[in-house]
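Exercise 3.2. Students should predict the tertiary structure of the chain below and write it as structure tokens, then compare their answer with the key that follows.

Predict this chain's 3D structure.
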Amino acid sequence: MKAQRVIPSSRGFALIATISVLLLLTLVAVAFLSLSAVTVRSSRLEWAEEEAKANARLALMIAIGELQRELGPDRRIAVSAGILDKNPDTLDVDGVANENWLGVMSTFYEGPNAGPNGSPFTRDSRTSTMQDAREGINYQAKDHIINYLVSGNEGGKDRISGGRRFQDAVTDTLQVGTEGIKLVGEGSVDRPNDEVVAKLMSTEKRQQLPNGRTEWRPNGTYAWWITSDSQKAAIGKEDRHRSRPYSPNGDGIERMLHAQDADPAVVDQILVGNGGQDGRVLTPKSLTLINPSNRDGVRANFHSLTSTSFSPIVNVRDGGLKKNLSAFLYGGDGETAPSFRDEDISVPYYIGIDPEDRLVGPPNEAYAQLRAESYDESGFQDVAPTFELLYNWANLAREFEFENGKTGIRPAKTWVGAPDVDHRQGSNSNVYDDENGKPVDPRNLSVVKMTPVIVEACCYYNLATYQEGEEDDAGNVLRLCLYPRVGLWNPYNVEMRLDRPMLLQLFLNGKKSVQFDNDSNFTREIYFGGERDSFDGRLGGQVFFKLPAVTIPPGETYIFSMGGAPQLLDVNNLGRNLLQAKEAPSSASYLYKDYKRNGLSGKRLIAAKDSDSESSEIMPKAPTSFRELP
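Answer key:
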């Protein structure tokens, strides 16, 4: 029998391979489905994020557009709604629902009784009085808010149309979630009144439907709010003069005169400052990195601090940029002020400046014409100081350097040929009852006057008696004790040398009637000064004192009074009534005047009542008290 080879059967392999491939394809399909689902979800999230970014970008563009339209004109100003506080006497803002909204107002007044120059104030040049057009019309500042820079008020009060309504910062409140969103909340501020809520504005997108029609469907919301840094403390501006040391030649003075930063350490609840590193303060919250204890202070001053504060130097009253006086103050040769006159005077910022222009009232005829005022009838035309005076003040800096910080008295200009106020023929001194031979010229001051300021000028008095004579001829002499007190203040930042003795005139009450011991039949009439020993009419109340030559340090006040032993008041040689500033005022130092004249007559005799019948000022007995009679 022939042997046969047995071959193993391979039936069923194709089925197993097919099933394996099917499983693999199933896993691939499931993986693709999962990946597709993840991709769809991711696309939806990215789409929502893109929509949110688009809405935020739209809000930013709208806010910038509103800012440019509302505050673009030079005569517009931004004000916080907090100025509408109904009770300004308290620290909190009362009666304003959204005190941190930013309002826009115009400096050009167009209300009732408005004048031609856009100002509510009208000056009557002839009477030098001011009239306010807002008086008597129940003027309310909130009615003159043009717009609030917040979402929902796009277009402003006069342009809102459709179903929108203008939002008033005083009365309108927004519900967070349904109609508003909190842009500044608990994480940034610590008081509910400091929170800022803005209205949510909906956006829509056009969508194509399967039937070929299109419709607008919601596409998210946006909100925006603008704040102003111009009224905040700039804590991020570096002081470029901080590192400059002081020196005798004047270097470093900029640190004292031109401080360019606001030290956070002086802000309420900021416990630790930035150590002078202003440039590292990126935001007010940077102060919390300096010290965590500043966190509460940063939250409490959220609306009061800023690290970036810039603004154009705009003349919000007349428009255009503010005039820079640097070329005028520091031009010329230091002695003669330069003149910058522009030929085109049709607009105020082309008028220029001249040394003879006035600092008060219309500076010149061209400016008065633009303001619809009469320059010739201006009450300030003759007495207003000029820009030449300002120029001379500015150029004192060249003279008063650190090593030369001293000055003597620079007297005022004397008015030669002053008018005669008494209208008396033959008057030579012209003014003030013929007593002032050299009156000051107040007309259009252009020369610097530097004199000490009289902050106190008074004279206390007391009455005493002493006995004169012996036995039966003895009497009691009334003595007037004067305690003059004069305070001279040096208001300047340089030493002032009173390089010449000065004569000070005090006009006291010409005479006084006094009663002794509460007895109506025991009276005298006292008088203080005059040119002679007796009462001298209108000159009887003029008392003269001489002030010595001294040097008053910057900003200090010297008190002049009598010093040493009592001294007779000299009404003839006035220089003997010398005051001093070395000793403090004392009751033991005074000027005196004795009343012991005989042969009285007329009113003087009637006023000298006592128990005897003598026509003398000497008293028969010494009184113990006195009082002034009306």
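Discussion points: The chain has nine helices and 26 strands. The radius of gyration is 43 Å.
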